[in-house]
Design a protein that fits this description.
Blueprint (H helix, E strand, L loop, with lengths): L1 H27 L10 E7 L12 E8 L2 H14 L5 E4 L9 E8 L4 H11 L1 H4 L7 E4 L2 E4 L2 H7 L4 H22 L13 H10 L2
Parallel strand pairs: 1-5
Antiparallel strand pairs: 1-2, 2-4, 3-4, 5-6
Helix pairs in contact: 3-5
């Protein structure tokens, strides 16, 4: 009896999965594995600036695609399929011959790691790639597509992001002051007039 129930439940799950896949593909006007071999299995996180708002408020993902047409189709897939995506867009030009970037922006929240996993899991219908085949890049480091790991390495709170990046910018500015022979100081905001003059003379 239990075996029959388990078999029926497995059949139900498989049918549900098939129907969801079929629904997604019909909705997006794409066929199964239409993008096989056309998307590189790497997603970068916060490597690029947000187009629509402040970086502290929005996480920006970047996917690499191997043609402009694939990029446009992927942008359409993202925008029509996920109401939590704030914006999806294609890079204005090639990053190298035949390759473009597709940007995805979402609110900086604790849900980001799970949503990254949702995107690459759903993309299996178009690429044939499992989530375990993807690499997530954060701060130039490569990580597995594991939600618990991503929770540890992605900044998920706007205030923490602001504080962390502010400290990094301060370190960079003080390094420039040191090279210019100026005293290092506690900075908030833009460089002071002395450093601005050095930056201008150095052509930085």
């Amino acid at each position: 009896m239990l075996t029959q129930w388990a078999a029926a439940w497995e059949c139900h799950l498989l049918r549900h999965q098939y129907n969801m896949t079929k629904k997604i593909l019909i909705t997006e006007g794409l066929d199964f594995k239409d993008m096989e071999g056309q998307i590189e299995p790497t997603v970068s996180v916060d490597e690029y600036e947000s187009k629509l708002g402040e970086n502290k408020d929005l996480v920006t993902l970047a996917f690499t695609v191997k043609s402009k047409q694939v990029g446009e189709d992927l942008v359409d897939w993202f925008e029509r399929g996920y109401d939590w995506i704030i914006d999806a867009s294609l890079s204005e030009g090639e990053i190298e011959v035949g390759k473009y970037l597709v940007f995805v922006e979402m609110n900086r929240r604790s849900t980001v790691p799970g949503r990254i996993l949702e995107l690459i899991s759903d993309l299996k219908t178009l690429t044939g790639m499992k989530p375990t085949e993807w690499t997530i890049q954060v701060e130039d480091e490569d990580y597995d597509a594991d939600e618990d790991v991503l929770k540890q390495v992605i900044i998920l709170n706007p205030n923490v992001y602001k504080d962390t990046k502010g400290e990094e910018e301060e370190e960079e500015i003080n390094e420039m002051r040191h090279r210019a022979g100026l005293d290092t100081v506690k900075l908030h905001g833009e460089p002071d007039s002395e450093l601005k003059a050095f930056i201008s003379m150095a052509g930085l």
